[in-house]
Amino acid sequence: MLSVAEARERILSHFHPAAEENIPLIECANRALAVDIIAAHDLPSFDNSSMDGFAIRAVDSRNAAASSITLSVVADIPAGSAPTVTLTQGQAARIMTGAQIPSGADAVIAVEDTDFNDRSANTLAPQTVSFTRAVKIGENIRPRGMDLHAGETVLQKGHRLKPQDLGLLAMLGMGHIRVYKKPRVALLSSGDELLEVDAPLSAGKIHDSNSYALAALIQNAEADLLRLGVAKDTHQSVEGLLQKAVDEQVDLIVSSAGVSVGAFDFVKEVIESNGSLNFWRVNMRPGKPLAFGEYRGIPFLGLPGNPVSALVGFEVFVRPAIKRLSGQLDGTRLTVKVRCGEEIESDGRESYLRAKIRNENGIHIATLTGHQGSGNLLSLVQADALLIIPAGVKCVPVGQEVDALLL
Ligand code: AMP
Ligand code: MG
């Protein structure tokens, strides 16, 4: 039997980032960068005020603590204007937050520290301004290059763009960004027992639930989804639905069920007759059977049919594959250390157990959410993490530290 890590490595070696494209910044959230981003200019790109106030020469305020200082206001600098004055001794300029510091000035005194505290719109600048506080050089000034300098690498290739990254790219004036294309993933359910979600239940039938949960996971992994629907347990039905994935040339086909050794497991047969299939038994629980192969040149990952196995298999194998396809270097799910709040028995396979985590005086304590059968979806609904019990471990005592994959 393969270990989880071996199976994942074998799978990932077949996946490479999809093609690149140059797209408008507004469409770039969650995409992975296909290039390093180098700053074309300093940020901020000019010395500017961090307060509404008066730009001054700090030296003129030296004696302000002893007695009130009065400066003459020689200019008014709103945000967005290019100051033309040069302050000389005894002079100040009214200045707004974000406005460029005039030459000659080396500090800003906030409006609330002066005798002029009228901040309503349309107020004209006063003739003079007085204050009683010495101001330090650089006070309330955001100097050019404070955040970053031209030529610095700001973000690296493979980085998944967060909202604040888009803000920074906009600050750098980058309207189009070279990113990896979104992978396209086709999803297939299979089984004669499966009904559409709104069909009334009848004897022996169940609703197809995997295609809803897996669809959401695929989209959550930032891939475009192609729903192939539910195949009957026949060769023709499976082949017919897979044709759509071939026509659309998706980057990955994901299926649930139909790949074990049952008499009606036609997905397996169809993949084998039009490509190749490795059927692996992975040393994990739930989700031991895992199929990996290629269908008419498209990578194929066959997850088990049991709902919990399918979703755990997605987190362990499919999400990393999609991540690789989308060119991302940084992960999307966090694994943290938690302490077991109860004794946990395991069967020696690498186990992914559904658990709830609570914070007790700063320590994260995990307790199982209930029946751990691979068909018991409720316990996964109630869980906020999967505890990872390593292979070879049969019993984890109360208080022991284990890894938890946060859902
Ligand atoms: P199989 O791999 O076809 O033997 O299916 C294993 C178990 O998963 C059976 O109990 C199936 O009824 C169940 N199952 C398969 N596909 C789905 C699905 N799409 N939604 C919910 N349960 C499923
Ligand atoms: Mg079946």
Question: Quick recap of the structure?
Answer:
By secondary structure, the chain is of the alpha/beta class. The protein is built from 7 helices and 27 strands.
Q: How would you sum up this structure, described in words?
A:
This protein has 407 residues and is an alpha/beta fold. Helices cover 18% and strands 32% of the residues. It has four domains: 157 residues, 3-Layer(aba) Sandwich (Molybdenum Cofactor Biosythetic Enzyme, Chain A), CATH 3.40.980; 60 residues, Molybdopterin biosynthesis moea protein, domain 2; 95 residues, Beta Complex (Molybdopterin biosynthesis moeA protein, domain 3), CATH 2.170.190; 72 residues, Beta-clip (Beta Barrel). The chain has a six-stranded mixed β-sheet, sandwiched between helices. A five-stranded mixed β-sheet has the order 7-4-6-5-8, with no helix packed on it. The protein has a five-stranded mixed barrel with strand order 21-24-23-25-27. α1 packs across α6 and α3 runs parallel beside α6. The mean pLDDT is 95. The structure holds adenosine monophosphate and magnesium ion. The site of adenosine monophosphate has 18 residues, from α3.
